[in-house]
Design goal:
about 15% strand; single chain; binds flavin mononucleotide; about 190 residues
Length: about 190
């Protein structure tokens, strides 16, 4: 697969088979993630891998409650709110693995560095015939002290990118892109 195929073919995958993703495969994806550029080559990314399904269920439950309690009224669509209120909705789509990329410390570009690592990880997953999806629903809760304690994340880490990984159960349909808004400044 060439780079263009990977960039254009990757999709947010929300249906997974029950097949596990091996430790070696996850290590390979993390190895791709850390090839990302980082400001002043600080490489502030840290990785937490969660494969315990009961723990993911628990975090899903707590993250939904946290989002509903803390999100300002009007800032989430009715559709997203109805997902969060639905007891059957598991924010990780029962994927076999969650990789949380966290920033160690408060460096001025640590968040950007972690987002770049996240994109590498998702592209590498696609190239390995795996699906992935960034789960923003988990992000705020994982950033709390309780959330960090659930995944054994040190308090000085800032969870940036919770990304589920697994074997796609079905091909995800492409999502159309808006025309880019470009200002040419001569
Ligand atoms: C920061 C961020 C947060 C996201 N959070 C969620 C989420 O909580 N749940 C979800 O199903 N998808 C989530 N997504 C996936 C987007 O919905 C998806 O990338 C977008 O619809 C475009 O689809 P595509 O990735 O297939 O191109 C998130 C993506 C990003 C970049």
């Amino acid at each position: 697969m060439n780079l263009d195929q990977a960039i254009r073919g990757r999709r947010a995958v929300r249906e997974y088979t029950r097949d596990i993703v091996s430790e070696q495969t996850i290590r390979n994806l993390i190895d791709a993630a850390i090839q990302a550029p980082s400001a002043v080559n600080q490489q502030p990314w840290r990785f937490t891998v969660v494969r315990n399904q009961s723990l993911l269920d628990r975090i899903s439950h707590e993250a939904k409650a946290f989002m509903l309690a803390t999100t300002p009224a009007g800032s989430l669509s009715e559709q997203l709110l109805s997902h969060l209120r639905n007891p059957e909705f598991q924010i990780f789509y029962h994927a076999p693995a969650l990789v949380v990329i966290s920033a160690d410390g408060q460096g001025p570009w640590a968040i950007e560095d972690c987002a770049l690592a996240a994109q590498n990880l998702m592209l590498a997953a696609f190239a390995a015939n795996l699906g992935s999806c960034w789960i923003g629903f988990a992000q705020k809760f994982l950033g709390t002290e309780v959330g960090k304690s659930r995944i054994g994340c040190p308090s000085e880490w800032v969870p940036v990118a919770p990304i589920i990984i697994g074997h796609p159960a079905a091909a995800a349909a492409p999502v159309p892109r808006k025309e880019p808004i470009i200002k040419w400044v001569d």
